Every structure is written in C-alpha cells, then in structure tokens.
Amino acid sequence: MDDRRYTFGTFALEVVMIALAAVFAFPIYILVVLAFKSQAEWREAPLSPPSDPYLGNFQTAWHDAYLADALISSVTVVAGSLVVLVAVGSLAAYFVARCKPRLGYGLYLFFLTGLILPFQLALIPLYQLMRDMGLLGSPLSLILFYSGLQLPFTIFLYAGFIRTIPKTYEEAARIDGASDLVAFIHIILPMLRPITGTVLILNGVFIWNDFMTPLLYLSGSSWATVPVAIYAFVDQYVTQWGIVFAALLIGIAPVMLAFLFLQRNMIKGFASGIKG
After folding, report:
1. What's the domain range around 34?
2. Which pLDDT tens digit goes with each residue over 6-30?
3. Which of 98, 165, 213, 240 is the 20 to 30 A CA-CA neighbour of 223?
C-alpha cells in the first residue's frame, strides 16, 4: 500500500502554505502595482492592476533621488567589500581548515566570536578611527568596515566547505613541487565556486541593504548609497507612493538580478556544507 496518499492533512497543509505565500506576496504586489500607476489611478483603485503601465514614477524617482550616483556608490562599496572578503576569507579559512587540529580549532573559535559580539559595541570607536584617518565621506571607509565585520561569517562558510574537500588534491600538487599557496590558488580556489556564490549573495545583500553605517560614515558627501538616497528622497514625496515605490524597485533590482544569477551556486554551497 502506498503511504503517500493525498489525505485531508495534506490538503490542510497546502492551504496553509498557500495562505502564507499570499501573505508574503501581498506587499510585493502592492509595491509593484503602485509603482506602475499614476497618482490619480492609484487613488481611485489602489489594489487593482494598472490599466496602462505608467513609467513617469520611475523617471521622477531616477532624477530626483539621484539614483544613478547612488547606484554607483553602492556598487563600488559592495564590489570592493566582496573582493576583500573572498580573497582574505577564503585564504584564511584554508589555513584554519588545514593547519594542526588544536591551532585550527582555536582560530575557528576566535573567528566565531566575531559572529557573537554585536558590532554596535565598536561603532563609535570605529567612527572615531575613520575620522582620524581622514576616511569619512569616502567609500573606502565602508569597504574597510564591511570587510572586517563580515570576515568571521565568511571564514565560517569557507572553512566548513574546505573541510569536505579531500586533502589528496593538495598532496598530489605538493608531490609535483607546488607550494601551499600555489595549490590553494590553482586547485582549491576553483573548487570553492559553489560556496563563493553563497558568500557573494549573503554578504552582498547585507551590505547593499545596510542603512545606518552609510548614513553615519558618508553623511554630507556625494557618495550616498541607495538606502540613504531613498531615505532622503521619501521625505520629499511622502504622499506620492507611486514615486516612492518606483525608487524602491530601482533600488532592489540589482540585488534581485544578482540573486537570480547566483542562486544555483548558493544552493550548491548550502547543500555541500550540510553534506559535509
């Protein structure tokens, strides 16, 4: 007898899941619908789909919120931070995963403390340090901040993945005369592609969406990131939700595209870590 029969419990579970999906999808639906409606149309029928998509909201948001400059700033900060995190995090995790067990375990616990301690404790001292170094108002201050903040999490992901890779690959390279660094760059690093996708997505989304740190470090400069630019823009158009939602859609579009492009690597990275 097949135990996988369609029962009332299965039907009830499906209904609950559909209801939860509708609850989560409703705000996204409102965001998209109002972004493509004129102010007169969304006041008459705010929940209905737009009869004729209106692109004026996006034009106004693009010019008045200076989103072109904000996108360049956010991309600069995210790209610079991710390059540092992948380069330093993968190499540090390789050492942690391959060194002597006691030393590796001690270093692993040391980096894990970076996940436990709240970064708000060092927010003011770091701000003063950036000020004394003359980096306030520069994207370099955010790159340094995010690289240090997310490095423990990056090492945690990479170390767990590297432990699943057999050491025979590196031993064969050493027999051929390769050093540890050469073996890592030419053998191990290409094998880290799945977990690298996970690192890029998780860290990239966090850095892109962060609001407080760019507001503090880049206040008064021309390097405002997307969340800060949208925050300043909302005060001007607080009653014109179509324009505000259009700005939000422009702000989240790069993250959504990156997620769609890297989601397979992200799933493979999680699956490999769980399997290991």
Report:
1. 8-54
2. 787 788 888 999 999 999 889 888 8
3. 240
